[in-house]
DNA sequence: GAATTAATTGAACGTTCGTTTTATTATTTT
DNA sequence: AAAATAATAAAACGAACGTTCAATTAATTC
């Protein structure tokens, strides 16, 4: 046989992306074969090469779009304020919501960096760095304004991202907690971590020596 | 050729473990072939099978010993006190020190769970759960004693472990920060996260409404 | 309705994979 | 020094891998 009835390039490509994200999130990039992926899509392996030149290019496309989507989502919700607390809250909320909604592609983007060629890796890391830089800037602004109490900005930024990305390891949308409850709990922990004063709050804790 | 001069089973097995941890941490379990591993050790691939029956059993052994080592290290340093703050501090310090010292096996243990068979996975997760349970107990004790202010114990425990394990992603021992500096910074963040009162401290922050 | 383009199949390519088998040599035991 | 055992090499197994190529059919254009 050859071209099948009702076949459509756009739909097939979307199906490939979808299946690839699911399979690679579950079994890992290396463990998923092009034949397995094709079977999931419902085509022969050769058909995949009409849409992606190599397996790695497929992975790279998925990761790049994930990172670009994350940055775009942040740009879209970034508040027009100069209160670092509001900015930090928006950052954390966006991060968790975005990642919970896209657990599988987050998993792939976080776990499969080592399967990229040098150039592709560099491109992804550049996007990641740009995203983390936003958080560092918020922490710096807040520290200078005196509303955060952060010792090491770079270290704190990494710790926060690590913590709030960890949600996707355990969170499943149908459990006792809703997404919004989780978001607020993590936000509260983040605020504590940065020593953020709540709006209306004036003083830090003082030890009674 | 066959048996080589000076060959020794004990040394070869140790060399296999060592090379396996390094290679698998760098390239991932699936991406490392038995031939590549053998070449790193300096033997033929067939020789590996004298020490480990399958590739997966080798992985499982490495992961099991890592987790057992982590639990053993904690048992060894667990303080004989009922102050949850001291216990939490000991837990965090031990966790970071252990993981920084064993970056590669930590990486393997965290990343390669999906390459295990069901039974082997269950065994590793059992160890992991036992380890996390220790932290939850500390948080629970501290919350009941009123020295911690934790909203959701399970969620906080996961967030803390995620945060303090994240050290190995970026920390390299020869940089501007020493291990002990990093340990203390993360400890401070953990204490803030849990709302821990410092010894000698009496009150929490109060909002000025 | 003929020509063109899009989408896919089926077979095949050479390579590498984890693993097994058999033979061979070094070392230890008797 | 002979016998037994430990440690390895060398070669081979069938299966699976990513990828390519030629053929074929569906849909679209002219």
Note the main attributes of this structure.
elongated; 10 helices; Tetracycline Repressor, domain 2; Arc Repressor Mutant, subunit A; DNA-binding; homodimer; 209 residues
Would you kindly provide a written description of the structure presented here, covering whatever features stand out?
The structure is a homodimer of 209-residue chains. Chain A has 209 residues and is mainly α. Chain A folds into two domains: 1-53, Homeodomain-like (Arc Repressor Mutant, subunit A, Orthogonal Bundle); 55-208, Tetracycline Repressor, domain 2. The first copy, chain A, is built from ten helices and no strands. The termini of chain A are far apart. The relative contact order of chain A is 0.11. Chains A and B meet through helix 8 and helix 10 of A and helix 8 and helix 10 of B. The first copy, chain A, binds a DNA duplex (30 and 30 nucleotides) through residues 1-9, 12, 33-35, 43-47, 49-50, 54-55.
């Amino acid at each position: 046989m050859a071209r099948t009835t009702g076949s459509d390039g756009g739909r097939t490509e979307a199906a490939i992306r979808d299946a690839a994200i699911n399979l690679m999130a579950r079994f890992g990039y290396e463990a998923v074969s092009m034949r397995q992926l094709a079977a999931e899509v419902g085509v022969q392996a050769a058909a995949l090469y009409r849409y992606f030149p190599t397996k790695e290019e497929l992975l790279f496309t998925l990761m790049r779009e994930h990172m670009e989507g994350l940055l775009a989502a942040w740009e879209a919700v970034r508040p027009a304020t100069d209160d670092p607390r509001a900015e930090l809250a928006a950052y954390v909320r966006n991060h968790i919501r975005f990642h919970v909604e896209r657990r599988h592609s987050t998993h792939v983007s976080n776990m499969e960096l080592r399967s990229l060629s040098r150039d592709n890796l560099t491109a992804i890391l550049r996007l990641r760095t740009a995203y983390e830089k936003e958080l560092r800037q918020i922490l710096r602004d807040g520290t200078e304004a005196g509303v955060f109490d952060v010792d090491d900005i770079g270290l704190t930024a990494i710790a926060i991202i690590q913590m709030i990305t960890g949600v996707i390891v355990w969170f499943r949308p149908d459990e006792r907690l809703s997404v919004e409850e989780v978001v607020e709990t993590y936000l509260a922990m983040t605020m504590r971590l940065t020593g953020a004063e709540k709006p209306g709050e004036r003083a830090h804790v003082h030890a009674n020596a």
